[in-house]
Structure formats: C-alpha cells, structure tokens
Amino acid sequence: MAVRNVSPMQFARLPKSQQRVQIALDVILQIKRRRFSTNHSLKGYYLQGIVKNIEQAVEIREMFAEMAQVKCCAIGAVFVSAVSHGDTLEKADFNEYELKEKAGHKVQMIGYPVVNYLENYFEREQLRAMEQLFESWKNDEYHNFPKFAKYLDQHADNKEQRIIAIMKNLVDHHGELRDTDYGE
User: Fold this and answer.
1) What is the DSSP annotation of 27-80?
2) What whole-number distance in Å separates Cα of residue 9 and Cα of residue 127?
3) Per the domain annotation, does 54 fall within a domain?
4) Distance CA 11, CA 115 (A)
C-alpha cells in the first residue's frame, strides 16, 4: 500500500516531476518501514513477493497490497510505489514470462510492461540510470553521473542505502536525477 502524501486524484493532476517526487518519497518510506527489501539477488527480476490470494487479484495494485514484503531492485521499488498510487494496471497486461506465479504464492515480475508503465512518469534514461547506479554497473549511464556514483560508492554500504540516496537525489532535485556529490 502506498504512503499517501496526496490522494490518487491529486496525484494524477500533479506535474510529472512532482509525481516522481511522490513516488520517491514513498519508496524511501517503504524501505524504512521494511516493506521493501533490496539487499539480495533477484536473479534478473524487478521484484518478488508472496500473494496469498493471487487468483482473486485482477489489478496489479491489489496484488501489491497483499504483499507484506516486496523484494525489489530500484525499478521494482519505483514500480510498486507508482502502481500503488492508484493507477490501473491489470495482471492481463503481463504474459506468463513477465509475471510468474509460482508455488507458495510467490510472484516475480520482469519485462517491458514494467518499464513501459514507468515511462508514464520517468524518461527511459532516468530509469536506466537509477538501476545502474543502484546495481553499481560501471557503464555509460553510471559514468554520466561521476560525482553521484562516487558519492554512492563511498557512502552507501549496501543496496538499501543506495536506493535511499537515489530517491533522495530525485526529491532534492524536484523529480530529476542529478550528478551531485552532496558537498563532498
């Protein structure tokens, strides 16, 4: 369930930059509340969690509301928070590869529908940069943020600290991810 600083109707009327700020604030709070867990390997999936009544859930946000804890990467955390702010996205929008329902009610998500949905709020380059900074992938996007990447490498001891710093960067810069060293 999303942490609501604004109602779903208010959220829908916000400029995209402020929607990104609301999503980032929600990610930070969900991590601090231990609902989002980021310090583990997902083996290529954006997120996974346990849903007891998976058969009854039609909308993705219904499924997320049932997850006591969501194991996720940066894209997964942002996706859960964005969808939980009230947007309609149905399980039928995902194929069996993208939304895996496994024994024990375990759900795993990956694929273009996740990224395509997030493009309602973020530019693809922002999403790529967030994920690459989160995962410490040393490639072009990582090098587009040399000061911030160095800051993360020196001050974020684990993935939880990395994602919080990335989300704070978005909040501090009004929904834009910026290359900053935070006073270093």
Assistant:
1) HHHHHHTTSEE-SS--TT-SEEEE-TTTTT--BHHHHHHH-S-EEE-HHHHHHH
2) 24
3) yes
4) 20
pLDDT band at 6 (very low <50, low <70, confident <90, very high): confident
Q: Highest mean pLDDT range out of 7-11, 25-29, 44-48, 109-113?
A: 25-29
Evaluate whether residue 14 is within a structural domain: yes
**Amino acid identity, position 124:** R
Give Cβ neighbours of residue 61 (< 8 Å, ≥ 6 apart).
83, 84, 86, 87, 88, 89
Q: How far apart are CA 181 and CA 184, in angstroms?
A: 5
Report yes or no on 72 lying in a domain: yes
Q: Is residue 3 part of a domain?
A: no
Domain hosting 66: range is: 8-172
Rounded CA-CA distance 41/178 in Å is: 27
- Count of the separate structural domains present in the chain: 1
Distance CA 100, CA 107 (A): 6
pLDDT at 1: 45
Give dist(CA 36, CA 67) in Å, integer. Answer: 10
Residue at 165: amino acid letter: A
The structure's pTM equals 0.90
Asked whether the beta carbons of 85 and 65 are under 8 A apart, the reply is no
Q: For residue 35, what is the DSSP state?
A: S
